Amino acid sequence: MPEYRTRPSFPSRPGGSSPYITSAIGIEETQGRARARRSSLFTRTIIWVTGLVCLAFLLGSLAQAWTNSQLTQQLRATQAQTQQAQSYRDYLAQQANRYQDPAVIAKEAREQLGYVRPGERPVVIVGSKQTSSQVPSPDRKTAPSQNFWQAWWNIFFGS
Question: pLDDT tens digits for 88-100?
Fold first, then answer.
């Protein structure tokens, strides 16, 4: 069998030297130190990722709390409006029930509209604090109504 010559293996670097530039000046980095640096980089990366995830959860929680606060304020405002509307509805229902009574209707017609029953004579008391509102008596005849322009002519030039 023919013998093959094997090449002698020579290390490209002297034994125990590292490929880093620092080895040329005599500051060599040991494998343990390199492993520790890689481990430290991995640990820092994990810490940063964990911190960012926690920050995202915190911001999400704050946004949700703010939204809940806004919705609670809107709910309170709407409940207050509903309460006011219900109070006004109750007031109107009381007024409607009050005006079902014929005596109340007659009283309001007399006081506010100046109505009188047949055979009665209205009495108007004119005071210094009240404006006079005269109710024409049924005995008095009203003058024939003039048209609009005739009334203005009479105001400015007399009749």
Answer: 999 999 999 999 9
